[in-house]
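Before surveying the methods themselves, it helps to consider a single example record, giving the amino acid sequence and C-alpha cells:
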Amino acid sequence: MSAASVADAQLAQKRRRNALDAWLRFLRYATVRAITLGLVVVVAVYLTVLIANMGGKVDQIRLAQIEEEIGLSFLGNPQVQMMSVEERAAYRDQLVQLEVKRLGLDQPLLVRSFRYLKQGLTLNLGRSEELSSDSGSRQVRYILLERLPATLLLWGTAQILLFFLALFTALFLSGRYGSIIDKIVVALAPTSAAPGWFYGIFFILIFAAVLGWLPFGGIVDAPVPDNRWEYALSVLRHLVLPTAAQFASGLFLLIYSWRTFFLIYSSEDYVEMARAKGLKRGAVERRYILRPTLPYIITNFALLLISVWTGGIILETVFNWPGLGRLLYSAIHLYDTPVIVGSTVLYAYLLAATVFLLDIIYALVDPRVRVGTEGRES
C-alpha cells in the first residue's frame, strides 16, 4: 500500500472519529439541557400548586363552600327537617367529613401538594371543581382540549400573520432608510405601548357599537348557522376585531425593532461588497442580511408559538372569546385549582419543549454556536 493510500485512510479514520465525538458531545449537551429544563418544569408546576392553593387559604374557602352546599340541601329535605337540632348538626358534620375525605382535604397541604404535582406532571389533571365543558364533562383535559382550538384559531391567525408581515416589511424598510414610509413607521412605533385589549375596547365601540359592521364578541353568531360556509363566514367576522387589536398593539414596534436590527447587518462590509458586485437588492437582502439574522428570527418565532398556545387572558375576556386565556381567568376567579394547574402545566411543557428545540436549531443554523466538550455552548 502506498504512502498516499495510508495517509488517506488515516485521514478518513480521523474524520469518522471527529464526527463520532461531535455526536457524543451533542447528545451529552442535549441530555443536560433536557434534564435542566425538566427540573425547571417541576419547580414551576410545584410553585403553581402552592400559589393556586394560596398556602391553604383555598382549602378554607372550599370547606366553607361544602358546608354551605350541604346546609342548602337540608332546606329541601323533609326527612332532615324532622330531625332534632342535635341530630341535624351531627348529620351535617358527618356529610361534611365524608366530602372532605373524598376530596382529600383531610390530608396536610404538603402531602396533597406533592400528589397534585405528580398528577400535573403526568397530565392526570383530574376533575374541575367549578368549571365544565360544553358537553358537561368536568375532566380538566377535556375542558382544556375544548378551549384549545379557539385559542389556536385566534392567536395562530393573528400572530403568524403579524410575524411575517412585520418581518418582510422590516426587511423592505432596512434598504430604504430615511424614506417617507420609514419615517411613518418610526413615528407610529410608540403606539404599540398599549396592549391589544386596550385597542380592542375602542374597536368594539367604533365598529360594533357605533357603525354596527362587526359583532361585539364571541366566536360565532347566535343562533349558530347550519350551513358550513355561513358558519365559516361568521367565525371570520368575529375574528376581525381581536386580530386587528393585536395588529394595532404589536405591528409597528415589531417592524421598528426588526428594521433597526436589519440595518445593523446591512451596514457590514460584506454587504457593501455584495452591492458593489452588482447583486440585486432582493438577493442581497436574502443572502447577506436575512440569513445572518436567522437565529434572532427563530427566537422570535419560537416565542410567538408560546403565545399561540397560551392565548391572552384580558383580550379573550374583552372579546368574550372562548379560549384558554378566558378559561384561566374564570378558573382564577372561581379558585378552580385543577384548571389553573392544568393550564400552567400545558404552558410549562410547551415552553420547555420550545426552548429545547430552539437550542438544537441554533446549533444547526448558526455556525457561531458550538457544543462544548462539557455540554455547554462556547
